[in-house]
């Protein structure tokens, strides 16, 4: 039998880790976003999914895969690297530039859905919008994210949100995916121990 | 990342590969509607050219402008240099103007190294005397990699005036770092004794072009630099062309996949015949286009982040 910790002892200082979404939950959430895209775009015609590296890329491929399973439509998928458009380039050592890979049909006149793992300050999406306007002129742009953790610093919102996670600024949301990290999971680090 | 790019030896294999990979991404910008990236907005790049140059200066200027940097062109002709200002005083002037990078070409070997001690910004060597020209080596390596798919294990022949060639020096240093094997070819008077051993172990020297041709993946022809030499290095231009010039019959002795390179400007009929220069094997025009992408990569990697 364990004794409750004595009242005068301070709580353990280790950062807490909480699993928000397990692998099965991630899969369900991706399914739901795919359905929502189909619903909101009335069948995903003239639609292009662009993943923002790193984890937006496998997410966009999964969404396209789900969409083709549900409704038998092929949605072109691409990669939009935003490194050169970031507003914090000078605060860090030089970042390596990744590939931008647009679908062969291009994005002009299409409905582009940007895909990322976590929506936080909104600065990544701002950079992505700037990058997008340099590579073409889509008819409209939407945003799909696996997790929205709040704390926006720019007037940006997502059209498709997998999971809203209320967080404190000190906390950290970490998404892992099978393609990049070996397993699907969303975790919340830090903050007060639950 | 390094702060200056002064020599082909400044780059280790990982950094050189990073430059080439970054250049490959920069190259995609050339095919876009908006050929501009915001990465160096608000940065100032000074092109400080003490020697005549068209392609290198324009290439650096285009690269800096595509990255949204402000470009100041400074050529020695018609400037305070003509009035006798020293390199150091010019450097301090540029420093006071807030140059984030100085791209320097100078007739004196080692001038960029001195400059790097005087200015806070990054210094890029765009050719110093008969010493080095590292961005040319990078664009040559980039061209080889994009044409042949790899650099490791390639056999590269560098033919001609090695003695006066900064292109050859930088290429030997960089290519050996990246795993290619270099053979220097030319008349004995134009290949310094022991240069191979001094630059990079594994580099060969050969005085017979025909003996090497069937065995190479790349032939890089160097310009005969008449402005840097008296007439004493070889008996006549015709004899040089016959022994070391690349003409049609010699080109046909190359392996099927081999490419022909030249850093330009060419002396057509001297080191290379028009038939070779305009053949599909020649990458001479490609090299110019690749030069902009490679210089964009260098400027971005030197100036893009906070590397102080």
Automatic annotation (TrEMBL), chain A:
<dbReference type="InterPro" id="IPR050137">
    <property type="entry name" value="PyrR_bifunctional"/>
</dbReference>
<keyword id="KW-0808">Transferase</keyword>
<comment type="function">
    <text>Also displays a weak uracil phosphoribosyltransferase activity which is not physiologically significant.</text>
</comment>
<dbReference type="Pfam" id="PF00156">
    <property type="entry name" value="Pribosyltran"/>
</dbReference>
<comment type="similarity">
    <text>Belongs to the purine/pyrimidine phosphoribosyltransferase family. PyrR subfamily.</text>
</comment>
<keyword id="KW-0804">Transcription</keyword>
<dbReference type="InterPro" id="IPR023050">
    <property type="entry name" value="PyrR"/>
</dbReference>
<dbReference type="InterPro" id="IPR000836">
    <property type="entry name" value="PRTase_dom"/>
</dbReference>
<dbReference type="InterPro" id="IPR029057">
    <property type="entry name" value="PRTase-like"/>
</dbReference>
<protein>
    <recommendedName>
        <fullName>Bifunctional protein PyrR</fullName>
        <ecNumber>2.4.2.9</ecNumber>
    </recommendedName>
</protein>
<keyword id="KW-0328">Glycosyltransferase</keyword>
<feature type="short sequence motif" description="PRPP-binding">
    <location>
        <begin position="112"/>
        <end position="124"/>
    </location>
</feature>
<comment type="function">
    <text>Regulates the transcription of the pyrimidine nucleotide (pyr) operon in response to exogenous pyrimidines.</text>
</comment>
<feature type="domain" description="Phosphoribosyltransferase">
    <location>
        <begin position="20"/>
        <end position="166"/>
    </location>
</feature>
<keyword id="KW-0805">Transcription regulation</keyword>
<dbReference type="GO" id="GO:0016757">
    <property type="term" value="F:glycosyltransferase activity"/>
</dbReference>
From TrEMBL, chain B:
<dbReference type="InterPro" id="IPR006132">
    <property type="entry name" value="Asp/Orn_carbamoyltranf_P-bd"/>
</dbReference>
<dbReference type="InterPro" id="IPR036901">
    <property type="entry name" value="Asp/Orn_carbamoylTrfase_sf"/>
</dbReference>
<dbReference type="Pfam" id="PF00185">
    <property type="entry name" value="OTCace"/>
</dbReference>
<dbReference type="Pfam" id="PF02729">
    <property type="entry name" value="OTCace_N"/>
</dbReference>
<feature type="binding site">
    <location>
        <position position="56"/>
    </location>
    <ligand>
        <name>carbamoyl phosphate</name>
    </ligand>
</feature>
<feature type="domain" description="Aspartate/ornithine carbamoyltransferase carbamoyl-P binding">
    <location>
        <begin position="3"/>
        <end position="145"/>
    </location>
</feature>
<dbReference type="InterPro" id="IPR006131">
    <property type="entry name" value="Asp_carbamoyltransf_Asp/Orn-bd"/>
</dbReference>
<feature type="binding site">
    <location>
        <position position="105"/>
    </location>
    <ligand>
        <name>carbamoyl phosphate</name>
    </ligand>
</feature>
<feature type="binding site">
    <location>
        <position position="83"/>
    </location>
    <ligand>
        <name>L-aspartate</name>
    </ligand>
</feature>
<dbReference type="InterPro" id="IPR002082">
    <property type="entry name" value="Asp_carbamoyltransf"/>
</dbReference>
<comment type="function">
    <text>Catalyzes the condensation of carbamoyl phosphate and aspartate to form carbamoyl aspartate and inorganic phosphate, the committed step in the de novo pyrimidine nucleotide biosynthesis pathway.</text>
</comment>
<feature type="binding site">
    <location>
        <position position="136"/>
    </location>
    <ligand>
        <name>carbamoyl phosphate</name>
    </ligand>
</feature>
<comment type="pathway">
    <text>Pyrimidine metabolism; UMP biosynthesis via de novo pathway; (S)-dihydroorotate from bicarbonate: step 2/3.</text>
</comment>
<keyword id="KW-0665">Pyrimidine biosynthesis</keyword>
<feature type="binding site">
    <location>
        <position position="133"/>
    </location>
    <ligand>
        <name>carbamoyl phosphate</name>
    </ligand>
</feature>
<keyword id="KW-0808">Transferase</keyword>
<feature type="binding site">
    <location>
        <position position="166"/>
    </location>
    <ligand>
        <name>L-aspartate</name>
    </ligand>
</feature>
<feature type="binding site">
    <location>
        <position position="223"/>
    </location>
    <ligand>
        <name>L-aspartate</name>
    </ligand>
</feature>
<feature type="binding site">
    <location>
        <position position="265"/>
    </location>
    <ligand>
        <name>carbamoyl phosphate</name>
    </ligand>
</feature>
<comment type="subunit">
    <text>Heterododecamer (2C3:3R2) of six catalytic PyrB chains organized as two trimers (C3), and six regulatory PyrI chains organized as three dimers (R2).</text>
</comment>
<feature type="domain" description="Aspartate/ornithine carbamoyltransferase Asp/Orn-binding">
    <location>
        <begin position="152"/>
        <end position="302"/>
    </location>
</feature>
<feature type="binding site">
    <location>
        <position position="55"/>
    </location>
    <ligand>
        <name>carbamoyl phosphate</name>
    </ligand>
</feature>
């Amino acid at each position: 039998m364990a004794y409750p910790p004595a009242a005068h002892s301070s709580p353990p200082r280790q950062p807490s880790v909480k699993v928000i979404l397990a692998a099965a939950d991630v899969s369900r959430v991706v399914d739901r976003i795919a359905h929502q895209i189909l619903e909101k775009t009335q069948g995903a015609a003239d639609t292009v999914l662009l993943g923002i590296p790193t984890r937006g890329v496998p997410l966009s491929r999964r969404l396209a895969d789900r969409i083709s399973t549900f409704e038998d439509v092929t949605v072109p998928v691409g990669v939009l690297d935003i490194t050169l458009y970031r507003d914090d380039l000078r605060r860090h050592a030089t970042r390596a530039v990744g590939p931008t890979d647009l679908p062969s049909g291009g994005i002009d006149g299409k409905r582009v859905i940007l895909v990322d793992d976590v929506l936080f300050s909104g600065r990544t999406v701002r950079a992505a919008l700037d990058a997008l306007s340099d590579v073409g002129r889509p008819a409209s742009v939407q945003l799909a994210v696996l997790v929205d953790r709040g704390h926006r610093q720019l007037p940006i919102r997502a059209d498709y949100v997998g999971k809203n996670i209320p967080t404190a600024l000190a906390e950290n949301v970490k998404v892992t995916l099978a393609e990049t990290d070996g397993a699907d999971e969303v975790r919340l680090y830090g903050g007060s121990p639950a | 990342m390094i702060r200056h790019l002064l020599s082909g030896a400044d780059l280790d294999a990982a950094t050189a590969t990073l430059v080439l990979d970054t250049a490959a991404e920069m190259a995609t910008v050339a095919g876009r509607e908006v050929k501009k990236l915001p990465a160096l907005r608000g940065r100032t790049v000074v092109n400080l050219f003490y020697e005549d140059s068209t392609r290198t200066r324009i290439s650096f200027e285009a690269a800096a402008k595509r990255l949204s940097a402000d470009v100041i062109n400074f050529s020695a002709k018609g400037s305070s240099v003509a009035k006798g200002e020293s390199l150091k005083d010019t450097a301090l002037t540029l420093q006071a103007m807030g140059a984030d990078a100085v791209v320097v070409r100078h007739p004196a070997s080692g001038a960029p190294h001195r400059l790097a001690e005087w200015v806070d910004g990054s210094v890029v060597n765009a050719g110093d005397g008969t010493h080095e020209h590292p961005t040319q080596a990078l664009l040559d390596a980039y061209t080889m990699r994009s044409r042949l798919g790899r650099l490791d294990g390639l056999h590269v022949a560098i033919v001609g005036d090695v003695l006066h060639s900064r292109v050859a020096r930088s290429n030997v240093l960089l290519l050996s770092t990246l795993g290619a094997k270099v053979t220097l070819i030319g008349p004995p008077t134009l290949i310094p004794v022991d240069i191979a051993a001094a630059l990079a172990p594994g580099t060969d020297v050969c005085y017979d072009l025909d003996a090497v041709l069937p065995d190479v993946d790349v032939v890089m022809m160097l310009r005969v630099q008449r402005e840097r030499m008296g007439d004493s290095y070889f008996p006549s231009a015709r004899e040089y062309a016959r022994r070391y010039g690349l003409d049609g019959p010699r080109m046909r002795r190359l392996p099927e996949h081999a490419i022909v390179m030249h850093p330009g400007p060419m002396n057509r009929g001297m080191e290379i015949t028009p038939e070779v220069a305009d053949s599909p094997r020649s990458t001479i025009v490609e090299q110019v286009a690749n030069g902009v992408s490679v210089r964009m990569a260098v400027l971005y990697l030197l100036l893009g982040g906070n590397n102080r």
